[in-house]
Design goal:
The structure is a homodimer of 223-residue chains.
Chain A (H helix, E strand, L loop, with lengths): L2 H18 L3 H10 L4 E2 H8 L3 H13 L3 E6 L2 E6 L2 H17 L1 H13 L4 E3 L1 H9 L3 E5 L3 H6 L6 E2 L5 H4 L8 E5 L6 H12 L4 E4 L3 H6 L11
Parallel strand pairs in A: 4-8, 5-6, 5-7, 7-8
Antiparallel strand pairs in A: 1-3, 2-3
Helix pairs in contact in A: 3-4
The structure holds a DNA duplex (30 and 30 nucleotides).
DNA sequence: TCAGTAATCAATTGAATACTGAATTATAGT
DNA sequence: ACTATAATTCAGTATTCAATTGATTACTGA
């Protein structure tokens, strides 16, 4: 084999990983899978795409060895193929946020278009919680909360938010967080709370980033 | 703007970075640019592709903000848009090498198909050099050697290798290195040396990795 | 101003990709 | 064996992408 052919073939294979993160849908799927394993159906639903399409994107991700699957009974469960993959996807996001200025602009536009939507970073959260000024609310589904959440956070899945309203005091600031910086759940929660007169802000990131920075997390949901 | 639309748009933008590294040719271009800035013509030549095609790939990379260009006189010089980009490309390569098993297999096949092509890692190099058992040879073009090379390495650009043969002793082991793990220059050099009876091996990586691991490098070419 | 050169742009081709909806496969429960 | 369900595969269509070719732009130096 000629060296040139070898190099060409290697780069072809390297590009597989790149192809994995070259589509918005696949990045979204990876973002969801970073939260924990999912079946194809659930993934399709959460990503808002058809099952067939999801399955095909997953095949691409699997070829790139970014995810792996396991069949149990009727269900095929996909998971990220290791913690390095989560880190890699994070690095794509960070590089993009840092360099692709359109993202910053879009985010600014988005927040100003729905004014009142305040965002808060990890440090601010820690300080205000320490001062007892804030209630931290985890809006993800119960299972994800159980799998790992910010210490002291209360589990209030988005669809149960209205029921939990009475337990929340209006004069206390509420900080909601979800899956990540682009988590629609958290955004909707904050919006809803503000509409009803609560002082509510959103944490800039989700649990993945929290954990990635070495902050403590709590597992389980028993008091 | 709806949260869903925002999320969708953000992921679209994130995917730009992914698209940048989703084509073998673009990965190759980035690999070359990691060595230092280049004009379009030079890039096209080194990558073995047409100028127009190169230019178009560069446009994709620029949209992803992975490279940036500067026009001076007739020439447009491209460079990686920061050290983070080099790190990112490295992380793509590492993830792929680690996970895409086909790469390992291919590499093994390649080396066994041209037997005698020995590869050596950084540690081995350091030890044997310390023992005075090895001559280290940098086969890249002079400018790249000047921009930064392994301490103690001699600059012998590939096309001048035959001229330099007389200065090399046959009973002394020669270790050649080039731009990176897939550097065709280094492979050809080793092959040529072995054909002429020299004991020659290739360093597994190039200067970029050497530097990335915090090892010292020497700049300049005056004795 | 004009010839020459580097780079980009525009138009085109064929190949690869994304998505949909229907057919197919695999498995569980009855 | 039969039905229901999860997932994959397939066929078809629309879109995007890679690469080539030739034209165009931008600049230099005579």
């Amino acid at each position: 084999m000629e060296p040139e052919l070898y190099r060409e073939t290697v780069f072809e294979l390297l590009a597989r990983v790149g192809k994995g993160v070259s589509s918005p849908k696949r990045l979204l799927l990876l973002d969801i899978l970073a939260q924990g394993p999912r079946t194809v159906e659930v993934l399709a639903h959460e990503a808002g795409m058809s099952v067939a399409n999801t399955s095909q994107h997953l095949r691409v991700l699997q070829r790139a060895r970014l995810v792996e699957s396991k069949k149990r009974a009727l269900y095929v469960t996909y998971r990220v193929a290791g913690e390095e993959v989560v880190g890699f996807v994070r690095s794509v996001q960070q590089l993009a946020e840092q360099r692709v200025t359109e993202i910053e602009r879009l985010t600014k536009d988005f927040h100003s278009s729905r004014k009142g939507m305040k965002v808060v970073d990890r440090n601010t959260l820690l300080h205000r919680v320490r001062d007892g000024k804030m209630t931290v609310v985890d809006v993800r589904p119960r299972e994800e909360y159980t799998a790992g959440h910010i210490p002291g956070a209360v589990s209030v899945p988005l669809h149960q938010l209205t029921d939990h309203l009475k337990t929340l005091r209006k004069n206390r600031e509420i900080i909601a967080y979800g899956r990540g910086p682009y988590c629609v759940l958290a955004m909707k929660a904050v919006e809803m709370l503000r509409k009803r007169g609560y002082q509510s802000v959103r944490l800039q990131e989700g649990v993945t980033d929290w954990k990635a920075h070495g902050y403590k997390i709590t597992v389980g949901d028993r008091e």
